Amino acid sequence: MMNAIEVENITKSYGKGKIKALRGVSFNVQQGELFGIIGPDGAGKTTLFRLLTTLLLPDSGTATVDGLDVVKNYKAIRQRVGYMPGRFSLYQDLSVEENLDFFATVFQTTVKENYHLIEDIYKQIEPFKTRKAGALSGGMKQKLALCCALVHKPSVLFLDEPTTGVDPVSRKEFWEMLKRLKMQGITILVSTPYMDEATLCDRITLIQQGQLLQIDTPQQIINGYGQPLWAVHAKNMYRLLNDLRQHPQITSCFGFGDVHHITMKEDADKDKLLVDLAERGHEEVEMHPIEATIEDCYMKLAVSNNE
Amino acid sequence: MNENDIVIRTEQLTKRFGSFTAVDHISFEVHRGEIFGFLGANGAGKTTAMRMLCGLSKPTSGKGLVAGFDIHKESEQVKRNIGYMSQKFSLYEDLKVWENIRLFAGIYGMKDKEIEEKTDALLQRLEFSEERETLVKRLPLGWKQKLAFSVSIFHEPKIVFLDEPTGGVDPATRRQFWELIYQAADRGITVFVTTHYMDEAEYCNRVSIMVDGRIDALDTPRNLKQQFQTDNMDEVFQQLARKAVRKAD
């Protein structure tokens, strides 16, 4: 199968080389794949999107989208990609309809021509089509932005943190829409800081400080965690966090809501730990083994990469 | 529960805009040092309820006590005894780190000398001392959020209201932020937080979930998960929020 995106050793820096946004990034995305880029603010996600949508030039390295070079064939690429930037990008003073018409016209097409692509999504915002984009709720804005990015029938869709600040119900709907677009053969590159969304991708890569740490399916990344993991709960979770971190047998400890996830040294004794916690005055202590999640993998990689 | 340990109490609190009831007779209590999650889909009435609790909007009917003051008659005292932070508005981007602290502390009536001493201590604790003269707009998002939270409790309020404080940050940064929240709660500051992220809801001692202006569920995350027979808060939220009749628009 042909690759929709090929990135080969791309670097990009700002401020005369002072800020290295991307330090030699390479990866491929297959046609029709839903590929996730997971990483913190400032890791280089947006720079990568701008390079691939031909809005920035790389310092070195090469990249192709739909087989076209991002530097030499930038005009042809722009016809074929849809881009939804992280910040709301629509015209706030234009209505829903006007925004959509505008984007269609810029790409020399009409809303009617590709209506089948956006129909599912547009139907949900159609009742508000005369409302100004600036007056829409977060979930509605996001649906409109997606329609505008799709109206010229792109073969590759770039979505930079599309669900930031959107409520859980709208987020779920959004990912269902992405699944349907994927089924129509559209390749999707999406970035997100949220781990529950990462598991919905075919493959993901974790990016940090301009470098890709790992590229694989979510399940393979989880399988590679490779260490027994425990969940610990007690009445006072803040004191528990501090006490666990200071315990000599514990190698890592992170808060996960109403439990903390810990890993221990190989020779560590669970019962001894429970005794130590009781001695420190912890009440209602519970501890049980658990399976790692993508978030555990992320925390492990993020920490080891920072050391 | 000791009466003095209740820092928020509402009874049948209601807000109508014309014929639309944004907040519909909500009654609940929040205790001292508690981390209370205030959840709901867009349009469920969270922001309207929170604005009333902060003394920014008058209730149509019902009662509310915040930090011991009546939100209807004593809204000025309410404002003075709370802290507030939101993702949308927190710090002035064009002011330096120390200038932001100075400005907000001054607004809350703190004395210059006290501000100076506490500023040094705060920056050291956050390991921000080198960024003292940095413009806030040059800080990474995660740092801004930590600083904004610290500024919002700089005057040691009884309660801090956090309105969607951590949108768009990665898990590592989000944890650092929640550890600051844990610390504040441990010192006795009550934390009232709205969030769209259900994994964050799991860090709260108790959460309430608003649907169509009402509070449809209120309990510890553990009990809610048990009640709805699921292992995560997202599922609890989806089950409740899908019952909503009114839409965000």
Structure description:
The complex is a heterodimer of chains A (about 300) and B (about 250). Chain A is α/β, with parallel strands linked by helices and about 300 residues long. Chain A has 2 domains: about 5-220, P-loop containing nucleotide triphosphate hydrolases (Rossmann fold), CATH 3.40.50.300; about 230-290, 2-Layer Sandwich (Alpha-Beta Plaits). Helices cover about 35% and strands about 30% of the residues of chain A. Chain A has 11 helices and 14 strands. Chain A has helices at about 45-50, 75-80, 95-105, 115-125, 140-150, 170-185, 195-200, 220-225, 235-245, 270-280, 295-305; strands at about 5-15, 20-30, 35-40, 60-65, 70, 80-85, 155-160, 185-190, 205-210, 210-215, 230-235, 250-255, 260-265, 285-290. In chain A, strands 6-7-8-3-9-10 form a 6-stranded mixed sheet, sandwiched between helices. Chain A has a 4-stranded antiparallel sheet with strand order 2-1-4-5, covered by helices on one side. The longest helix of chain A has 16 residues, at about 170-185. Chain B is α/β, with parallel strands linked by helices. Chain B has one domain: 3-Layer(aba) Sandwich (Rossmann fold). Helices cover about 35% and strands about 25% of the residues of chain B. Chain B has helices spanning about 45-55, 75-80, 95-105, 110-125, 140-150, 170-185, 200, 220-225, 235-240; strands at about 5-15, 20-30, 35-40, 60-65, 70, 80-85, 160-165, 190-195, 205-210, 215-220. In chain B, the strands form 2 sheets. A 6-stranded mixed sheet of chain B has the order 6-7-8-3-9-10, with helices on both faces. Chain B has a 4-stranded antiparallel sheet with strand order 2-1-4-5. The mean pLDDT of chain B is about 90. At the A-B interface, helix 5, helix 6, helix 9, strand 12 and helix 11 of A face helix 6, helix 7 and helix 9 of B.
